[in-house]
Amino acid sequence: MSIITPKDIRKSDFKKTFRGYDPIEVDAFLETVSIRYERIFEENHNLNDKIKVLTADVDVYRENETTLQKAIVKAQDLAEEILVNAKKRAENIIKESELNAQKISQDNEKEIMSRKHELEELKLRNDKLVEDVKLFFMEKLNEMDEFIKSRNIYKMELARNDHNADDNDADTDAEQDIKMKKISINTATSNFSE
Question: Residue 158: its pLDDT value, please?
Answer without folding.
Answer: 62
